[in-house]
Amino acid sequence: MICGTCGQNNAPGTQFCTSCQAFLEWEAPQSGSPAPPATPAPRPQPAPQPHRPPQPHQPPHSPQLHRPPQPHPAPQPSPQPPPPVVAAAAPRRPGDDPDEPVPGPEALPDVPPGPPSTPPGPPPVPPVRCPNCRTENAPDRTLCIRCALLLDPGPPPGVRPPWWRRIFRRRPRQAPTAGTRPRRRLWRRPGLALPIVLIVLACGVWFALPHVSGWFGFAKDETGTPEAVPPTRFRASSRAAGHPAGAAFDGFNNRYWAPSAAGPGTGVGQYLECDFEQPVRVLKLVVFSGTSAKMDEFLTQARPARITVLLTSADGTSVSKKLRVKDQPGQQTFDLRGSEIVRARLTTDTTYGAGPGRRLAVAEIEFFGRRS
To answer: What is the C-alpha to C-alpha distance for residues 16 and 343, in angstroms, rounded to an integer?
Structure first.
């Protein structure tokens, strides 16, 4: 059964074309198409003669009776059935059973199938295979759908890659000629990548040498426990009787330093200053505010609220940091960093609990770090 749409040759009894899925209809042969050869009618056979009994032998001299000749009966043709008339098959709907057997492929005219109606499109683009996991990806993808590796097929044949790709790419190894043995090299000549890497490493080591000691010191400060670095000399902007500057650095929190003036606002601008015998690396600062670590004694005098710490190094450079002190008794620890420190000054910016007859009080100041 040849499809009239695309010319596909289908098996007998097929209702839809296997190529274009069009409905296959039976149509009567056209006037110009050759009709199938008709079966020749059988030739008529002569009618059988009736059997006559044999006549008795008559003597030669016996008189013969003259009988008029009888005409022979005309042979009657045997009746033959008329040739069957093949009627054109009506169009058949899907699902209807055929009324008569479907002719085989040998009864169909030998007509070559025509070209498909759809015009040929561009050839399909082959998929891109990932060089890492060998997964096939669509041609328009940039990253692999499985391992997310960059799908870079490289430059097309005949195009020289850029210089930065040629540096780290190994040269293709030439196969030896048949019947020869390649020579073994005890030392392979290095490419251009190895000298560049060595030069970069040498430059990095050269510029990093001045900072190596600082890096090791920083690692030691972060991983180790700082030690107490007490100062050796003490000074203050002023002092009250019985409360010198050294009372803030003696290691006891029941004795305190207080300036000479009393009253509201008299503690602002007052400072404590100390010197170290040798340069130290300061890491932390501990402050005991007020007159004591006990609550009932802590509230009897004014307390510092904000302090500005100025650290001076051996070469004259200074590092300043502002600290906010909580209004509570006991130890308060602050991070304070400085290298080669020889002097420290703590200046009070604001106070808590200032009033008539009250003085600023600082029970203890402690420095922690490492000696240089």
So the answer is: 102
Shared-domain flag, residues 96 and 145? no
Which residue range is the domain that position 137 belongs to? 128-152
Q: Is the Cβ–Cβ distance between 306 and 275 less than 8 Å?
A: no
Residue 216 lies in a domain: no
For residue 208, is it within any domain? Answer: no
Instruction: Indicate the residue type of 269.
Output: G
The rounded distance, in Å, linking the Cα atoms of 3 and 10 is 7
In this structure, the answer to whether residues 314 and 348 fall within a common structural domain is yes
Per-10-residue mean pLDDT, the chain, length 372: 83 79 63 47 53 50 48 53 54 56 57 60 79 85 82 64 68 66 64 81 85 63 78 93 92 90 88 94 93 89 94 93 93 92 95 90 93 76
Angle at the Cα of 368 (from 366 to 372), degrees rounded to 5? 130
Q: What is the total count of domains within the chain?
A: 3
Q: Which residues contact 300 (CB under 8 A, 6 or more apart)?
A: 291, 358
Query: In terms of Cα–Cα distance, which of 222, 312, 326, 304 is closest to 274?
Result: 312
For residue 7, the one-letter residue type is G
**Interatomic CA distance for residues 201 and 198, integer angstroms:** 5
Exposed, middle or buried by CB within 10 Å (0-12, 13-18, 19+), for 181? exposed
The 10 Å CB-count burial string (b at 16+, else e) for 229-247 is bebeebebbebbeebebbb
Give me 77's structure tokens.
């043709």
Tell the residue number behind the tokens 């200032």, with chain if given.
354
